[in-house]
Amino acid sequence: MVTIFMLLKGGHIKITISITIDEGKFEVYVKDANGIETNIHTYDNRGAFGELALLYNMPRAASVKAVTPGTLWAMDRQTFRRILLKSAYKKRKMYEDLINKVPMLKSLEPYERMNLADALVPKQYLDGEQIIKQGDTADGMYFVEDGVVRITILGENNREIEINRVPAGGYLGELALVTHKPRAASAYAVGDVKLAFLDVEAFERLLGPCMELMKRNIDDYEDQLVKIFGSKTNISDIR
């Protein structure tokens, strides 16, 4: 196994390149307070790494090790900054500010928040457009960047009943990801809405540290769950 980047601590470190994967498998490791390495992610023939240190002018936050032969493309600091820095920093900063408003994400480390910000995908919806459909399989969660989202459930005679509205800075869709159940409600745009979407794969990979916290804090969802599921039986099922 060949180490490409070693974890560096403190000091003035000259970071010169970021890497894009052409082919090959590469594992990412971070060290805990006791110096024990943990594999947090595996790149398989695609992906990029090393950009965080260039973007924030900070030491490498992790080690990347090649586990198969592979081919990488390197970009030097000057080229990286000229092409990507301005737009990437603006996007990441915007989403970091959004993420910092979500209580359940406070347990994430700074580098985890940066990775989460990178994984978010912008989506826009027009007034009245459906964002989530009740009964569908969950494909991710949403953070509301701008606008308001209306949450409804089906009542008697399939009549939709509004149970909540999520304003800018709020989030929705995480419930189905935590409970591993189909969408329990529908969501619609109220006016034009801008959202940041996190797909289910990224949710499980990046928000793993929050999963137990979300389950422990399920009481925060109790009023909403009672309205959605109709009883507390379903609540106890997911504790």
UniProtKB/TrEMBL annotation:
<keyword id="KW-0114">cAMP</keyword>
<comment type="similarity">
    <text>Belongs to the cAMP-dependent kinase regulatory chain family.</text>
</comment>
<dbReference type="GO" id="GO:0034236">
    <property type="term" value="F:protein kinase A catalytic subunit binding"/>
</dbReference>
<dbReference type="InterPro" id="IPR018490">
    <property type="entry name" value="cNMP-bd_dom_sf"/>
</dbReference>
<dbReference type="InterPro" id="IPR050503">
    <property type="entry name" value="cAMP-dep_PK_reg_su-like"/>
</dbReference>
<feature type="domain" description="Cyclic nucleotide-binding">
    <location>
        <begin position="104"/>
        <end position="224"/>
    </location>
</feature>
<keyword id="KW-0547">Nucleotide-binding</keyword>
<dbReference type="GO" id="GO:0030552">
    <property type="term" value="F:cAMP binding"/>
</dbReference>
<dbReference type="InterPro" id="IPR014710">
    <property type="entry name" value="RmlC-like_jellyroll"/>
</dbReference>
<dbReference type="GO" id="GO:0004862">
    <property type="term" value="F:cAMP-dependent protein kinase inhibitor activity"/>
</dbReference>
<dbReference type="InterPro" id="IPR000595">
    <property type="entry name" value="cNMP-bd_dom"/>
</dbReference>
<protein>
    <recommendedName>
        <fullName>Cyclic nucleotide-binding domain-containing protein</fullName>
    </recommendedName>
</protein>
<keyword id="KW-0116">cAMP-binding</keyword>
<feature type="domain" description="Cyclic nucleotide-binding">
    <location>
        <begin position="21"/>
        <end position="101"/>
    </location>
</feature>
<dbReference type="GO" id="GO:0005829">
    <property type="term" value="C:cytosol"/>
</dbReference>
<dbReference type="InterPro" id="IPR018488">
    <property type="entry name" value="cNMP-bd_CS"/>
</dbReference>
<dbReference type="GO" id="GO:0005952">
    <property type="term" value="C:cAMP-dependent protein kinase complex"/>
</dbReference>
<dbReference type="Pfam" id="PF00027">
    <property type="entry name" value="cNMP_binding"/>
</dbReference>
